[in-house]
Amino acid sequence: MRKYPHRLYEAQEDPQNENPGDCGVYSLMYIECLTLGRNFVGLNDQIITPLRLKLAANIYEEVIETAE
Q: Could you tell me which residue ranges the Ubiquitin-like protease family profile domain spans (predicted)?
């Protein structure tokens, strides 16, 4: 039995981030796209900051609504 039974491959069509601090936002957007059946075209470093702010605002709104 191999030590790691999983195969490793590099997906060419998936977005790659350059800023190491953005990996969490990329991961969440990746999961969202997968669950909605969308592709990842357009997900890049140039739009990740606005997406981070939108995500933070959505989380904040949920916390406020839950606290009421």
A: 9-64
Rounded Cα distance, 34 and 11, in Å:
15
Structure tokens that stand for 3 in this block: 């030590």
As a whole number of angstroms, the distance between CA 10 and CA 16 comes to: 11
What pLDDT, in 10s, does the model give residues 22-65? 889 988 988 898 899 998 888 888 899 999 999 999 999 999 99
Question: In terms of DSSP H, where are the helices of 1-68?
Answer: 23-36, 45-67
- Residue whose tokens read 């195969």: 7
